[in-house]
């Protein structure tokens, strides 16, 4: 009796919740701590079915199986267990249980006694720490790859894989970036989706910019995206109906939305929390910094590779690109041609009108050249008024057709200080493989042929 009295005092004063169930799972006793956590008066709780009243429906069967194991005497596997409970106000709390059973005077199991500790806040803090660690692991990994490989779709894909792996709550993800050829956005990297099936999906720029201001949690099944080309593929292969929540991180730079980074969860609408949004802001700012660095490096590279006056490639940059193009042509058995060009009587123009006017003539010359070449062709300035062109996948006949087009282009005057000026250009070609297999040799042949063209003109004058 004295022992029962001591137990009752412990039962009533314990800071941990204690719940006693009968063999049918009905509440036969609970202490004040349990009433406080469950937000219920004791008299209202007694006699209620524990599982139907306080256990979330999605885990009810699983928790009931734990109860049945205890009732059958198989206590060891479930002596300690964690599950959520729902309070009378609808709040969810995670409880860590230590379970035991009640016996009658004959040793028969007639019920269960479970002592529980509310670990909701502890788990929340732990999850927040895990997410913080996960986010910073992703940032470290992204920084390393950007520094090593630059800002590329391959880098984005690696970053995405790392994010889905490291950030709790992320089960899939995607990168959507602005297309360089139009005002729309497209998928460039995915995890958990078939990228090939989504490559034809396009989001209009106006719609994307209207919803992608700051990091946010989005619910696609509640608000389907507007302004979509390829909606059927998006619904089928983008699994929009299955996604419960998406953490979106927009990537802005100098007032332009470059795209967005999305992490998806298929399980819960509450998978992403305020902690995630705070960390998303950190990622967003870090992405801005990396983009700025990448753009600065590209600008520096452009300045190093291009002639300041004409924007043509410098001699060194042209040779580097020509070497790569020649190796590619050799590997695939394709022709490539080089054109050496020189302005006729340019020294006379400089001597007569001055170097400033001569510079303007060179700018006008390069502008006219760019009007007649392809985007894959490369223009370089060797020095003074000597320029070279690289024409990939162009054989000898193709190079001669280009020379003809070049001469025709300069039969028309160019604008210089709003004055119509006539420029004459001498040119010579060399083609791989018949004229050589090294850049130096090919340009030498083209140079010799250019001077032959110039000599022919002088004899005719």
Can you give me a brief rundown of this structure?
By secondary structure, this protein is α+β, with helices and mostly antiparallel strands. The chain has 16 helices and 18 strands. The chain has 3 domains: 117 residues, Beta-Lactamase, CATH 3.30.450.20; 180 residues, Beta-Lactamase (2-Layer Sandwich); 146 residues, Alpha-Beta Plaits (2-Layer Sandwich).
The helix tally amounts to 16
Question: Which CATH architecture of the largest domain would you pick?
Answer: 2-Layer Sandwich
**Residue-averaged pLDDT:** 87
Radius of gyration from the alpha-carbon trace, in angstroms: 37 Å
CATH topology of the largest domain: Beta-Lactamase
Q: What's the number of structural domains?
A: 3
Name the shape in a single word.
rod-shaped
Strand content: 25-35%
For CATH, the homologous superfamily of the largest domain is named as: GAF domain
What share of the residues lie within helices?
A: 40-55%
**In total, how many beta strands?**
18
Highest CATH level, the class of the largest domain: Alpha Beta
Taking strands numbered 1, 2, ... along the chain, how are they ordered across the largest sheet? 9-11-12-6-7-8-10
Low-confidence stretches: none
Distance between the termini: 131 Å
Which structural class best describes the helix and strand composition?
alpha+beta
Largest sheet: 7 strands, antiparallel
Oligomer: single chain
């Amino acid at each position: 009796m004295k022992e029962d009295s001591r137990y009752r005092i412990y039962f009533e004063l314990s800071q941990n919740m204690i719940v006693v169930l009968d063999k049918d799972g009905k509440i036969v006793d609970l202490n004040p701590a349990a009433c406080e956590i469950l937000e219920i008066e004791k008299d209202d709780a007694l006699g209620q079915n524990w599982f139907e009243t306080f256990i979330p429906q999605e885990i009810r069967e699983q928790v009931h199986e734990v109860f049945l194991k205890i009732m059958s005497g198989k206590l060891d596997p479930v002596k300690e267990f964690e599950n959520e409970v729902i309070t009378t106000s609808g709040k969810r709390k995670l409880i860590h249980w230590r379970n035991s059973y009640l016996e009658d005077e004959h040793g028969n199991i007639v019920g269960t006694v479970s002592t529980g500790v509310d670990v909701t806040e502890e788990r929340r803090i732990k999850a927040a720490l895990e997410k913080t660690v996960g986010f910073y692991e992703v940032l470290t990994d992204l920084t390393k790859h950007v520094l090593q490989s630059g800002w590329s779709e391959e880098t984005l894909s690696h970053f995405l894989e790392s994010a889905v792996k490291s950030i709790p709550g992320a089960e899939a993800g995607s990168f959507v970036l602005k297309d360089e050829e139009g005002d729309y956005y497209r998928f460039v990297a995915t995890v958990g989706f078939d990228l090939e099936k989504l490559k034809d999906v396009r989001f209009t720029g106006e719609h994307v910019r209207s919803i992608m201001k700051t990091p946010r949690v989005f619910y696609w099944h509640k608000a389907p995206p507007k302004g979509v080309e390829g909606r059927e593929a998006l619904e089928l292969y983008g699994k929009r109906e299955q996604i419960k929540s998406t953490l979106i991180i927009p990537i802005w730079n100098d007032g332009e939305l470059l795209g967005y980074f999305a992490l998806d969860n298929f399980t819960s609408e509450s998978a992403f929390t305020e902690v995630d949004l705070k960390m998303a802001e950190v990622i967003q700012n870090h992405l801005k910094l990396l983009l700025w660095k990448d753009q600065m490096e590209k600008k520096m590279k452009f300045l190093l590779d291009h002639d300041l006056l004409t924007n043509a490639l410098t001699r060194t940059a042209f040779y580097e690109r020509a070497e790569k193009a020649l190796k590619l042509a050799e590997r695939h058995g394709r022709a490539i041609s080089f054109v050496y060009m020189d302005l006729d009587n340019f020294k006379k123009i400089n001597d007569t009108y001055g170097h400033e006017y001569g510079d303007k003539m060179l700018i006008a010359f390069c502008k006219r050249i760019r009007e007649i070449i392809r985007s894959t062709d490369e223009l370089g300035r060797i020095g003074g008024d000597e320029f070279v062109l690289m024409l990939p996948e162009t054989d000898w006949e193709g190079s001669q057709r280009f020379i003809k087009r070049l001469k025709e282009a300069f039969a028309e005057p160019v604008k210089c200080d709003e004055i119509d000026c006539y420029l004459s250009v001498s040119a010579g070609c060399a083609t791989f493989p018949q004229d050589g297999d090294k850049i130096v040799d090919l340009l030498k042949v083209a140079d010799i042929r250019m001077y032959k063209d110039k000599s022919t003109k002088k004899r005719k004058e």
